[in-house]
Amino acid sequence: MVVLMKLITKTLCLLHPFSFKYFLLVAIFLILIYKWSFTSTPNSSPPSPRKLPVIGNLHQLGLYPHRSLRALAQRHGSLMMLHFGSMPVLVVSSAEAASEVMKTHDITFSDRPKITFFKKLLYDFKDVASAPYGEYWRQVKSICVLHLLSSKKVRSFRAVREEEAKSMINNIMKQSKSTTSSVFNLSDIFLTVTNDVICRITVGTKYNDGREDRKMFKGLSVEFAEIMSHINIGDYVPWLSWFSRLNGLDAKQDDLAKRYDDFLETAVQEHMDGDHVKNEDEKDLVDVLLSLQKANVLAIPIDLVCIKAITLDVFTAGTDTISTALEWTMSELLRHPRVMKKLQNEVRGIVGNKTDLTEDDLVGMHYLKAVIKETLRLHPPLPLLLPRMSSQDVKISGYDIKANTQVIVNAWQIGRDPKSYNNPEEYEPERFLSNDIDYKGTDYELIPFGAGRRGCPGIQFAAAVKEIVLASLVHKFDWALPGGARGEDLDMTESPGGTVHKKYPLKVVAIPYSC
Ligand code: HEM
Prior knowledge:
Largest sheet: 4 strands, mixed
Bound molecules: protoporphyrin IX containing FE
Keywords: Heme, Iron, Membrane, Metal-binding, Monooxygenase, Oxidoreductase, Transmembrane, Transmembrane helix
GO molecular function: heme binding; iron ion binding; monooxygenase activity; oxidoreductase activity, acting on paired donors, with incorporation or reduction of molecular oxygen
Binding site for heme: 456
Oligomer: single chain
Cofactor: heme
Helix content: 40-55%
Structural class: alpha+beta
Protein backbone atom coordinates (compact mmCIF):
# COMPACT_ATOMS: atom_id res chain seq x y z
CA MET A 1 0.00 0.00 0.00
CA VAL A 2 2.81 2.40 0.96
CA VAL A 3 4.52 1.70 -2.37
CA LEU A 4 1.25 2.35 -4.17
CA MET A 5 0.79 5.70 -2.39
CA LYS A 6 4.35 6.77 -3.27
CA LEU A 7 3.73 5.92 -6.90
CA ILE A 8 0.52 7.92 -6.90
CA THR A 9 2.24 10.96 -5.32
CA LYS A 10 5.08 10.84 -7.87
CA THR A 11 2.61 10.64 -10.72
CA LEU A 12 0.58 13.54 -9.30
CA CYS A 13 3.57 15.87 -9.48
CA LEU A 14 3.67 15.41 -13.25
CA LEU A 15 -0.01 15.99 -13.85
CA HIS A 16 -2.35 18.52 -15.35
CA PRO A 17 -4.64 20.18 -12.63
CA PHE A 18 -7.72 18.31 -13.93
CA SER A 19 -5.96 14.93 -13.77
CA PHE A 20 -4.63 15.94 -10.38
CA LYS A 21 -8.22 16.15 -9.01
CA TYR A 22 -9.01 12.82 -10.59
CA PHE A 23 -6.01 11.13 -9.01
CA LEU A 24 -6.74 12.74 -5.65
CA LEU A 25 -10.17 11.12 -5.71
CA VAL A 26 -8.69 7.71 -6.62
CA ALA A 27 -6.15 8.03 -3.78
CA ILE A 28 -8.88 8.87 -1.23
CA PHE A 29 -10.94 5.95 -2.50
CA LEU A 30 -8.00 3.56 -2.10
CA ILE A 31 -7.29 4.82 1.43
CA LEU A 32 -10.93 4.30 2.39
CA ILE A 33 -10.94 0.73 1.03
CA TYR A 34 -7.69 0.05 2.85
CA LYS A 35 -9.08 1.34 6.16
CA TRP A 36 -12.40 -0.43 5.70
CA SER A 37 -10.76 -3.78 5.00
CA PHE A 38 -8.23 -3.64 7.81
CA THR A 39 -10.41 -2.26 10.60
CA SER A 40 -10.93 -4.73 13.41
CA THR A 41 -14.29 -6.51 13.49
CA PRO A 42 -16.84 -5.49 16.11
CA ASN A 43 -16.28 -7.03 19.54
CA SER A 44 -19.30 -9.29 19.21
CA SER A 45 -17.92 -11.02 16.11
CA PRO A 46 -15.21 -13.74 16.32
CA PRO A 47 -11.64 -12.52 15.69
CA SER A 48 -10.72 -12.08 12.01
CA PRO A 49 -7.41 -12.08 10.20
CA ARG A 50 -6.86 -9.04 8.01
CA LYS A 51 -8.55 -9.24 4.65
CA LEU A 52 -7.98 -7.72 1.24
CA PRO A 53 -10.46 -5.59 -0.67
CA VAL A 54 -12.77 -7.57 -2.97
CA ILE A 55 -11.43 -11.10 -2.31
CA GLY A 56 -11.39 -10.90 1.50
CA ASN A 57 -9.34 -13.82 2.90
CA LEU A 58 -9.54 -16.10 -0.14
CA HIS A 59 -5.84 -15.57 -0.89
CA GLN A 60 -4.97 -17.07 2.52
CA LEU A 61 -6.40 -20.54 1.77
CA GLY A 62 -3.39 -21.76 -0.21
CA LEU A 63 -2.99 -25.21 -1.70
CA TYR A 64 -3.92 -27.01 1.53
CA PRO A 65 -6.76 -25.01 3.15
CA HIS A 66 -6.92 -27.28 6.25
CA ARG A 67 -3.27 -26.46 6.99
CA SER A 68 -3.56 -22.73 6.22
CA LEU A 69 -6.68 -22.48 8.39
CA ARG A 70 -4.87 -24.19 11.28
CA ALA A 71 -2.06 -21.63 11.04
CA LEU A 72 -4.62 -18.81 11.11
CA ALA A 73 -6.60 -20.38 13.98
CA GLN A 74 -3.43 -20.67 16.05
CA ARG A 75 -3.23 -16.87 15.92
CA HIS A 76 -6.91 -15.96 16.03
CA GLY A 77 -8.64 -18.72 17.97
CA SER A 78 -10.87 -21.74 17.52
CA LEU A 79 -13.77 -19.59 16.34
CA MET A 80 -12.58 -17.27 13.64
CA MET A 81 -14.45 -15.14 11.10
CA LEU A 82 -13.04 -14.99 7.58
CA HIS A 83 -14.50 -13.47 4.45
CA PHE A 84 -14.55 -15.21 1.09
CA GLY A 85 -15.24 -12.18 -1.06
CA SER A 86 -18.35 -10.70 0.53
CA MET A 87 -19.41 -13.98 2.22
CA PRO A 88 -18.73 -14.24 5.98
CA VAL A 89 -17.21 -17.63 6.81
CA LEU A 90 -17.01 -18.98 10.36
CA VAL A 91 -14.07 -21.36 10.84
CA VAL A 92 -14.43 -23.86 13.68
CA SER A 93 -11.22 -25.45 14.95
CA SER A 94 -11.81 -27.12 18.34
CA ALA A 95 -13.94 -29.96 19.67
CA GLU A 96 -15.83 -27.61 22.02
CA ALA A 97 -16.66 -25.13 19.25
CA ALA A 98 -17.66 -27.99 16.90
CA SER A 99 -20.02 -29.32 19.56
CA GLU A 100 -21.64 -25.89 19.88
CA VAL A 101 -22.17 -25.70 16.12
CA MET A 102 -23.13 -29.31 15.34
CA LYS A 103 -24.93 -30.23 18.57
CA THR A 104 -26.19 -27.22 20.56
CA HIS A 105 -27.14 -25.23 17.46
CA ASP A 106 -27.43 -28.14 15.02
CA ILE A 107 -30.66 -26.98 13.35
CA THR A 108 -29.36 -23.45 12.80
CA PHE A 109 -26.28 -24.85 11.03
CA SER A 110 -28.00 -27.60 9.04
CA ASP A 111 -28.16 -25.79 5.72
CA ARG A 112 -25.59 -26.01 2.91
CA PRO A 113 -24.27 -23.11 0.84
CA LYS A 114 -25.69 -22.80 -2.66
CA ILE A 115 -22.42 -23.03 -4.55
CA THR A 116 -22.23 -23.33 -8.34
CA PHE A 117 -20.50 -26.72 -8.24
CA PHE A 118 -23.40 -28.29 -6.28
CA LYS A 119 -25.94 -26.62 -8.55
CA LYS A 120 -24.33 -27.86 -11.76
CA LEU A 121 -23.14 -31.32 -10.71
CA LEU A 122 -25.82 -32.29 -8.20
CA TYR A 123 -28.89 -31.55 -10.29
CA ASP A 124 -29.72 -28.16 -8.83
CA PHE A 125 -29.38 -29.34 -5.17
CA LYS A 126 -31.67 -32.37 -5.67
CA ASP A 127 -29.25 -34.83 -3.98
CA VAL A 128 -28.94 -35.46 -0.21
CA ALA A 129 -25.60 -33.76 0.49
CA SER A 130 -26.35 -30.36 -1.05
CA ALA A 131 -30.15 -30.15 -0.62
CA PRO A 132 -31.25 -27.16 1.47
CA TYR A 133 -32.33 -28.13 4.98
CA GLY A 134 -36.09 -28.82 4.92
CA GLU A 135 -38.77 -31.36 3.96
CA TYR A 136 -37.19 -32.46 0.66
CA TRP A 137 -33.79 -33.10 2.33
CA ARG A 138 -35.48 -35.01 5.21
CA GLN A 139 -37.23 -37.25 2.72
CA VAL A 140 -34.22 -38.07 0.50
CA LYS A 141 -31.94 -38.58 3.50
CA SER A 142 -34.34 -41.02 5.08
CA ILE A 143 -34.69 -42.91 1.78
CA CYS A 144 -30.90 -43.26 1.74
CA VAL A 145 -30.71 -44.33 5.37
CA LEU A 146 -33.63 -46.76 5.30
CA HIS A 147 -33.10 -48.37 1.91
CA LEU A 148 -29.33 -48.41 1.59
CA LEU A 149 -27.44 -47.57 4.77
CA SER A 150 -29.41 -48.94 7.76
CA SER A 151 -27.62 -51.62 9.86
CA LYS A 152 -29.90 -54.28 8.36
CA LYS A 153 -29.22 -53.14 4.80
CA VAL A 154 -25.46 -52.86 5.38
CA ARG A 155 -25.47 -56.44 6.73
CA SER A 156 -27.43 -57.59 3.69
CA PHE A 157 -24.58 -56.48 1.37
CA ARG A 158 -22.11 -58.69 3.19
CA ALA A 159 -21.80 -61.18 0.32
CA VAL A 160 -20.97 -58.35 -2.11
CA ARG A 161 -18.15 -57.09 0.14
CA GLU A 162 -16.74 -60.56 0.76
CA GLU A 163 -16.81 -61.43 -2.96
CA GLU A 164 -15.13 -58.21 -4.02
CA ALA A 165 -12.45 -58.46 -1.30
CA LYS A 166 -11.75 -62.03 -2.40
CA SER A 167 -11.58 -61.06 -6.04
CA MET A 168 -9.08 -58.29 -5.14
CA ILE A 169 -6.90 -60.79 -3.24
CA ASN A 170 -7.06 -63.35 -6.09
CA ASN A 171 -5.97 -60.73 -8.63
CA ILE A 172 -2.99 -59.66 -6.51
CA MET A 173 -2.07 -63.28 -5.80
CA LYS A 174 -2.20 -64.23 -9.49
CA GLN A 175 -0.06 -61.28 -10.53
CA SER A 176 2.43 -61.68 -7.70
CA LYS A 177 3.04 -65.32 -8.68
CA SER A 178 3.18 -64.78 -12.43
CA THR A 179 5.67 -61.93 -12.80
CA THR A 180 9.17 -61.22 -11.59
CA SER A 181 8.20 -57.75 -10.42
CA SER A 182 5.22 -57.73 -8.10
CA VAL A 183 4.86 -53.99 -7.59
CA PHE A 184 1.22 -52.98 -7.15
CA ASN A 185 -0.47 -49.63 -7.32
CA LEU A 186 -2.56 -50.00 -4.18
CA SER A 187 -4.22 -46.60 -4.66
CA ASP A 188 -5.69 -47.88 -7.90
CA ILE A 189 -6.63 -51.24 -6.38
CA PHE A 190 -8.50 -49.47 -3.55
CA LEU A 191 -10.40 -47.32 -6.01
CA THR A 192 -11.38 -50.40 -8.05
CA VAL A 193 -12.60 -52.48 -5.13
CA THR A 194 -14.59 -49.58 -3.62
CA ASN A 195 -16.08 -48.67 -6.99
CA ASP A 196 -17.09 -52.28 -7.61
CA VAL A 197 -18.83 -52.62 -4.23
CA ILE A 198 -20.64 -49.28 -4.55
CA CYS A 199 -21.67 -49.97 -8.17
CA ARG A 200 -23.10 -53.36 -7.28
CA ILE A 201 -25.30 -51.99 -4.48
CA THR A 202 -26.47 -48.90 -6.35
CA VAL A 203 -26.89 -50.06 -9.95
CA GLY A 204 -26.50 -53.82 -9.57
CA THR A 205 -23.46 -54.27 -11.82
CA LYS A 206 -19.71 -53.61 -11.59
CA TYR A 207 -19.01 -51.26 -14.48
CA ASN A 208 -15.62 -52.94 -14.54
CA ASP A 209 -16.48 -55.75 -16.89
CA GLY A 210 -14.40 -54.63 -19.86
CA ARG A 211 -17.34 -53.02 -21.75
CA GLU A 212 -15.91 -50.05 -23.62
CA ASP A 213 -18.77 -47.66 -22.74
CA ARG A 214 -18.23 -48.33 -19.03
CA LYS A 215 -14.47 -47.85 -18.79
CA MET A 216 -14.75 -44.12 -18.22
CA PHE A 217 -16.83 -44.57 -15.10
CA LYS A 218 -14.07 -45.52 -12.65
CA GLY A 219 -12.31 -42.17 -12.75
CA LEU A 220 -15.44 -40.02 -12.46
CA SER A 221 -15.60 -39.84 -8.65
CA VAL A 222 -11.93 -38.82 -8.47
CA GLU A 223 -12.53 -36.15 -11.11
CA PHE A 224 -15.58 -35.01 -9.15
CA ALA A 225 -13.54 -34.52 -5.95
CA GLU A 226 -10.77 -32.77 -7.91
CA ILE A 227 -13.07 -30.27 -9.61
CA MET A 228 -14.99 -29.69 -6.36
CA SER A 229 -11.83 -28.26 -4.81
CA HIS A 230 -11.73 -25.35 -7.29
CA ILE A 231 -13.51 -22.24 -6.10
CA ASN A 232 -15.98 -20.53 -8.46
CA ILE A 233 -14.99 -16.98 -7.61
CA GLY A 234 -18.48 -15.83 -8.66
CA ASP A 235 -19.95 -17.66 -5.63
CA TYR A 236 -18.22 -15.13 -3.40
CA VAL A 237 -17.71 -12.09 -5.65
CA PRO A 238 -20.70 -12.21 -8.01
CA TRP A 239 -19.39 -9.58 -10.43
CA LEU A 240 -16.31 -11.74 -11.03
CA SER A 241 -18.34 -14.78 -12.14
CA TRP A 242 -17.05 -14.28 -15.73
CA PHE A 243 -13.65 -15.41 -14.42
CA SER A 244 -14.77 -19.07 -14.21
CA ARG A 245 -15.68 -18.89 -17.90
CA LEU A 246 -12.29 -17.40 -18.69
CA ASN A 247 -10.21 -19.96 -16.76
CA GLY A 248 -12.20 -22.93 -18.06
CA LEU A 249 -13.73 -24.03 -14.72
CA ASP A 250 -17.30 -23.53 -15.98
CA ALA A 251 -16.63 -25.66 -19.03
CA LYS A 252 -14.95 -28.41 -16.97
CA GLN A 253 -17.91 -28.57 -14.58
CA ASP A 254 -20.42 -28.67 -17.45
CA ASP A 255 -18.47 -31.41 -19.18
CA LEU A 256 -18.25 -33.60 -16.04
CA ALA A 257 -21.95 -33.03 -15.25
CA LYS A 258 -22.83 -34.15 -18.78
CA ARG A 259 -20.69 -37.31 -18.61
CA TYR A 260 -22.13 -38.26 -15.21
CA ASP A 261 -25.64 -37.60 -16.46
CA ASP A 262 -25.13 -39.77 -19.56
CA PHE A 263 -23.92 -42.60 -17.36
CA LEU A 264 -26.78 -42.28 -14.85
CA GLU A 265 -29.41 -41.87 -17.55
CA THR A 266 -28.28 -45.13 -19.17
CA ALA A 267 -28.13 -46.95 -15.82
CA VAL A 268 -31.66 -45.86 -14.82
CA GLN A 269 -33.03 -46.58 -18.31
CA GLU A 270 -31.57 -50.12 -18.23
CA HIS A 271 -33.41 -50.67 -14.94
CA MET A 272 -36.66 -49.37 -16.38
CA ASP A 273 -36.33 -51.58 -19.48
CA GLY A 274 -35.33 -54.72 -17.54
CA ASP A 275 -38.00 -57.42 -17.30
CA HIS A 276 -36.34 -59.60 -14.63
CA VAL A 277 -38.49 -59.55 -11.46
CA LYS A 278 -36.17 -59.16 -8.45
CA ASN A 279 -36.87 -60.25 -4.90
CA GLU A 280 -36.28 -57.72 -2.07
CA ASP A 281 -32.70 -58.89 -1.43
CA GLU A 282 -31.71 -58.57 -5.08
CA LYS A 283 -32.90 -54.97 -5.39
CA ASP A 284 -30.26 -52.29 -5.80
CA LEU A 285 -30.69 -48.59 -4.94
CA VAL A 286 -32.04 -47.64 -8.37
CA ASP A 287 -34.63 -50.46 -8.17
CA VAL A 288 -35.75 -49.18 -4.77
CA LEU A 289 -35.99 -45.58 -5.96
CA LEU A 290 -37.97 -46.59 -9.06
CA SER A 291 -40.41 -48.64 -6.98
CA LEU A 292 -40.89 -45.74 -4.55
CA GLN A 293 -41.59 -43.49 -7.51
CA LYS A 294 -44.07 -45.97 -8.98
CA ALA A 295 -45.86 -46.63 -5.67
CA ASN A 296 -46.37 -42.88 -5.32
CA VAL A 297 -46.22 -43.09 -1.52
CA LEU A 298 -43.83 -40.24 -0.79
CA ALA A 299 -44.95 -36.86 0.58
CA ILE A 300 -42.89 -35.13 -2.12
CA PRO A 301 -43.00 -37.25 -5.31
CA ILE A 302 -39.59 -38.07 -6.77
CA ASP A 303 -38.84 -37.82 -10.47
CA LEU A 304 -36.07 -39.12 -12.70
CA VAL A 305 -33.81 -36.18 -11.82
CA CYS A 306 -34.16 -36.99 -8.11
CA ILE A 307 -33.31 -40.64 -8.74
CA LYS A 308 -30.17 -39.69 -10.65
CA ALA A 309 -29.15 -37.13 -8.00
CA ILE A 310 -29.47 -39.57 -5.08
CA THR A 311 -27.60 -42.29 -6.96
CA LEU A 312 -24.86 -39.84 -7.89
CA ASP A 313 -24.50 -38.83 -4.23
CA VAL A 314 -23.79 -42.38 -3.19
CA PHE A 315 -21.15 -42.80 -5.91
CA THR A 316 -19.39 -39.56 -5.15
CA ALA A 317 -19.79 -39.55 -1.36
CA GLY A 318 -18.82 -43.20 -0.97
CA THR A 319 -16.17 -44.14 -3.52
CA ASP A 320 -13.42 -41.59 -3.24
CA THR A 321 -13.70 -41.25 0.56
CA ILE A 322 -13.41 -44.97 1.30
CA SER A 323 -10.56 -45.55 -1.14
CA THR A 324 -8.68 -42.54 0.25
CA ALA A 325 -9.09 -43.82 3.82
CA LEU A 326 -7.71 -47.21 2.73
CA GLU A 327 -4.77 -45.58 0.97
CA TRP A 328 -3.74 -43.60 4.07
CA THR A 329 -4.18 -46.63 6.33
CA MET A 330 -1.86 -48.85 4.29
CA SER A 331 0.63 -45.98 4.00
CA GLU A 332 0.74 -45.56 7.79
CA LEU A 333 1.07 -49.34 8.24
CA LEU A 334 4.05 -49.37 5.88
CA ARG A 335 5.62 -46.48 7.78
CA HIS A 336 5.08 -48.27 11.09
CA PRO A 337 6.22 -51.92 10.77
CA ARG A 338 5.51 -52.50 14.48
CA VAL A 339 1.83 -51.64 13.96
CA MET A 340 1.67 -53.72 10.75
CA LYS A 341 3.11 -56.76 12.57
CA LYS A 342 0.72 -56.38 15.50
CA LEU A 343 -2.24 -56.10 13.11
CA GLN A 344 -1.13 -59.13 11.09
CA ASN A 345 -0.79 -61.15 14.29
CA GLU A 346 -4.32 -60.21 15.31
CA VAL A 347 -5.84 -61.00 11.91
CA ARG A 348 -3.86 -64.21 11.31
CA GLY A 349 -4.53 -65.35 14.88
CA ILE A 350 -8.29 -64.96 14.47
CA VAL A 351 -8.59 -66.42 10.95
CA GLY A 352 -6.39 -69.37 11.89
CA ASN A 353 -6.11 -72.14 9.28
CA LYS A 354 -9.13 -71.08 7.24
CA THR A 355 -8.36 -70.14 3.64
CA ASP A 356 -10.76 -67.22 3.44
CA LEU A 357 -11.56 -64.50 5.88
CA THR A 358 -15.26 -63.69 6.39
CA GLU A 359 -17.02 -60.80 8.09
CA ASP A 360 -17.65 -62.99 11.17
CA ASP A 361 -13.89 -62.89 11.78
CA LEU A 362 -13.87 -59.09 11.89
CA VAL A 363 -15.96 -58.84 15.07
CA GLY A 364 -13.06 -59.63 17.41
CA MET A 365 -10.45 -57.56 15.54
CA HIS A 366 -10.17 -54.67 17.99
CA TYR A 367 -6.72 -53.60 16.87
CA LEU A 368 -7.92 -53.40 13.25
CA LYS A 369 -10.69 -51.00 14.35
CA ALA A 370 -8.16 -48.93 16.34
CA VAL A 371 -5.87 -48.73 13.28
CA ILE A 372 -8.75 -47.46 11.14
CA LYS A 373 -9.75 -44.88 13.77
CA GLU A 374 -6.20 -43.63 14.21
CA THR A 375 -5.85 -43.18 10.46
CA LEU A 376 -9.13 -41.24 10.24
CA ARG A 377 -7.92 -39.04 13.10
CA LEU A 378 -4.72 -38.06 11.26
CA HIS A 379 -6.04 -38.23 7.69
CA PRO A 380 -9.78 -37.49 7.49
CA PRO A 381 -10.53 -37.87 3.75
CA LEU A 382 -12.60 -34.64 3.90
CA PRO A 383 -10.46 -32.56 6.29
CA LEU A 384 -12.92 -29.64 6.22
CA LEU A 385 -16.05 -31.85 6.10
CA LEU A 386 -18.74 -30.34 3.84
CA PRO A 387 -19.57 -26.64 4.29
CA ARG A 388 -22.65 -25.67 6.31
CA MET A 389 -24.69 -22.47 6.35
CA SER A 390 -26.41 -20.67 9.23
CA SER A 391 -30.12 -20.13 8.65
CA GLN A 392 -30.64 -17.46 11.36
CA ASP A 393 -28.72 -15.14 13.69
CA VAL A 394 -27.21 -17.06 16.62
CA LYS A 395 -24.77 -16.57 19.52
CA ILE A 396 -21.82 -19.00 19.76
CA SER A 397 -19.44 -18.78 22.76
CA GLY A 398 -20.61 -15.19 23.26
CA TYR A 399 -20.00 -14.21 19.61
CA ASP A 400 -22.77 -13.06 17.30
CA ILE A 401 -23.02 -15.08 14.11
CA LYS A 402 -25.32 -13.71 11.45
CA ALA A 403 -27.75 -15.69 9.29
CA ASN A 404 -26.23 -16.76 5.94
CA THR A 405 -22.74 -17.23 7.34
CA GLN A 406 -20.91 -20.16 5.78
CA VAL A 407 -19.37 -22.57 8.30
CA ILE A 408 -16.22 -24.64 7.86
CA VAL A 409 -15.25 -27.21 10.50
CA ASN A 410 -11.57 -28.15 10.46
CA ALA A 411 -11.86 -31.84 11.45
CA TRP A 412 -8.22 -32.37 10.48
CA GLN A 413 -7.03 -29.85 13.07
CA ILE A 414 -9.49 -31.06 15.71
CA GLY A 415 -8.05 -34.60 15.38
CA ARG A 416 -4.57 -33.23 16.06
CA ASP A 417 -5.43 -31.08 19.07
CA PRO A 418 -2.96 -31.64 21.95
CA LYS A 419 -5.81 -30.85 24.37
CA SER A 420 -7.55 -34.05 23.25
CA TYR A 421 -4.62 -36.35 22.39
CA ASN A 422 -1.13 -37.04 23.79
CA ASN A 423 1.53 -36.92 21.05
CA PRO A 424 -1.15 -35.89 18.55
CA GLU A 425 1.18 -36.00 15.53
CA GLU A 426 2.26 -39.60 16.24
CA TYR A 427 0.58 -42.65 14.73
CA GLU A 428 -0.42 -44.70 17.79
CA PRO A 429 -3.54 -46.87 17.29
CA GLU A 430 -3.17 -48.13 20.88
CA ARG A 431 -4.66 -44.83 22.09
CA PHE A 432 -8.05 -46.10 20.91
CA LEU A 433 -7.77 -49.39 22.78
CA SER A 434 -7.78 -47.57 26.10
CA ASN A 435 -10.57 -45.03 25.50
CA ASP A 436 -14.09 -45.06 24.09
CA ILE A 437 -13.72 -42.21 21.62
CA ASP A 438 -15.56 -43.07 18.43
CA TYR A 439 -16.14 -41.37 15.08
CA LYS A 440 -19.90 -41.83 15.02
CA GLY A 441 -20.59 -38.15 15.67
CA THR A 442 -20.95 -37.97 19.44
CA ASP A 443 -17.27 -37.44 20.36
CA TYR A 444 -16.36 -34.07 18.88
CA GLU A 445 -12.60 -34.67 19.15
CA LEU A 446 -12.95 -37.22 16.31
CA ILE A 447 -15.37 -36.15 13.55
CA PRO A 448 -14.12 -37.37 10.15
CA PHE A 449 -17.78 -38.08 9.22
CA GLY A 450 -19.16 -34.81 10.63
CA ALA A 451 -21.96 -34.91 13.19
CA GLY A 452 -25.56 -33.96 13.86
CA ARG A 453 -28.44 -33.95 11.39
CA ARG A 454 -26.18 -33.38 8.39
CA GLY A 455 -23.65 -35.98 9.54
CA CYS A 456 -22.60 -38.77 7.17
CA PRO A 457 -25.15 -41.60 6.91
CA GLY A 458 -22.54 -43.93 5.38
CA ILE A 459 -20.38 -44.54 8.49
CA GLN A 460 -21.32 -48.17 9.03
CA PHE A 461 -21.13 -49.00 5.36
CA ALA A 462 -17.71 -47.37 5.04
CA ALA A 463 -16.41 -49.23 8.12
CA ALA A 464 -17.60 -52.57 6.75
CA VAL A 465 -15.80 -52.07 3.42
CA LYS A 466 -12.57 -50.78 5.01
CA GLU A 467 -12.38 -53.60 7.55
CA ILE A 468 -12.81 -56.50 5.11
CA VAL A 469 -10.42 -55.02 2.53
CA LEU A 470 -7.65 -54.23 5.04
CA ALA A 471 -7.96 -57.45 7.00
CA SER A 472 -7.83 -59.48 3.76
CA LEU A 473 -4.70 -57.66 2.55
CA VAL A 474 -2.70 -58.08 5.75
CA HIS A 475 -3.93 -61.66 6.18
CA LYS A 476 -2.74 -62.91 2.80
CA PHE A 477 0.40 -60.85 2.19
CA ASP A 478 3.42 -59.28 3.76
CA TRP A 479 4.07 -55.83 2.34
CA ALA A 480 7.19 -53.83 1.49
CA LEU A 481 8.14 -50.73 -0.45
CA PRO A 482 9.74 -51.19 -3.90
CA GLY A 483 13.54 -51.18 -4.16
CA GLY A 484 13.99 -52.00 -0.46
CA ALA A 485 12.99 -48.43 0.57
CA ARG A 486 12.36 -47.97 4.28
CA GLY A 487 8.84 -47.27 5.51
CA GLU A 488 9.84 -44.00 7.11
CA ASP A 489 10.96 -42.73 3.68
CA LEU A 490 7.49 -43.14 2.18
CA ASP A 491 6.37 -39.82 0.73
CA MET A 492 3.22 -38.75 2.59
CA THR A 493 2.66 -35.50 0.67
CA GLU A 494 -1.04 -34.71 0.29
CA SER A 495 -2.74 -33.91 -2.99
CA PRO A 496 -4.59 -30.61 -3.10
CA GLY A 497 -8.34 -31.21 -3.44
CA GLY A 498 -11.69 -31.62 -1.69
CA THR A 499 -10.88 -35.22 -0.78
CA VAL A 500 -7.26 -35.27 0.35
CA HIS A 501 -5.39 -38.24 -1.17
CA LYS A 502 -1.74 -39.08 -1.18
CA LYS A 503 -0.14 -36.94 -3.87
CA TYR A 504 1.75 -39.94 -5.29
CA PRO A 505 0.00 -43.31 -5.69
CA LEU A 506 0.95 -45.93 -3.12
CA LYS A 507 3.20 -48.45 -4.90
CA VAL A 508 4.05 -51.59 -2.93
CA VAL A 509 5.46 -55.09 -3.22
CA ALA A 510 3.17 -57.97 -2.17
CA ILE A 511 4.77 -61.10 -0.74
CA PRO A 512 2.26 -63.95 -0.42
CA TYR A 513 2.14 -65.26 3.15
CA SER A 514 1.72 -68.93 3.90
CA CYS A 515 1.04 -69.94 7.48
C1 HEM B 1 -14.52 -43.02 4.77
C2 HEM B 1 -15.67 -42.78 4.18
C3 HEM B 1 -16.51 -41.54 4.34
C4 HEM B 1 -16.19 -40.32 4.91
C5 HEM B 1 -14.88 -39.91 5.55
C6 HEM B 1 -17.37 -39.48 4.79
C7 HEM B 1 -17.45 -38.19 5.27
C8 HEM B 1 -18.57 -37.39 5.18
C9 HEM B 1 -18.66 -36.03 5.71
C10 HEM B 1 -17.54 -35.31 6.41
C11 HEM B 1 -19.90 -35.57 5.43
C12 HEM B 1 -20.46 -34.19 5.82
C13 HEM B 1 -20.94 -34.27 7.24
C14 HEM B 1 -21.39 -32.99 7.87
O1 HEM B 1 -21.74 -32.00 7.19
O2 HEM B 1 -21.40 -32.96 9.13
C15 HEM B 1 -20.61 -36.61 4.73
C16 HEM B 1 -21.90 -36.51 4.28
C17 HEM B 1 -22.51 -37.48 3.55
N1 HEM B 1 -22.03 -38.74 3.27
FE1 HEM B 1 -20.26 -39.50 3.83
N2 HEM B 1 -18.36 -40.18 4.16
C18 HEM B 1 -17.88 -41.44 3.87
C19 HEM B 1 -18.58 -42.46 3.26
C20 HEM B 1 -19.85 -42.37 2.81
C21 HEM B 1 -20.58 -43.44 2.17
C22 HEM B 1 -20.03 -44.85 1.96
C23 HEM B 1 -21.80 -42.94 1.83
C24 HEM B 1 -22.94 -43.63 1.14
C25 HEM B 1 -22.90 -44.82 0.63
C26 HEM B 1 -21.84 -41.55 2.25
C27 HEM B 1 -22.90 -40.70 2.05
C28 HEM B 1 -22.96 -39.40 2.53
C29 HEM B 1 -24.12 -38.52 2.31
C30 HEM B 1 -25.38 -38.87 1.52
C31 HEM B 1 -23.83 -37.32 2.96
C32 HEM B 1 -24.70 -36.08 3.03
C33 HEM B 1 -25.48 -36.04 4.34
C34 HEM B 1 -26.34 -34.79 4.49
O3 HEM B 1 -26.03 -33.73 3.94
O4 HEM B 1 -27.37 -34.89 5.18
N3 HEM B 1 -20.64 -41.24 2.84
N4 HEM B 1 -19.77 -37.71 4.60
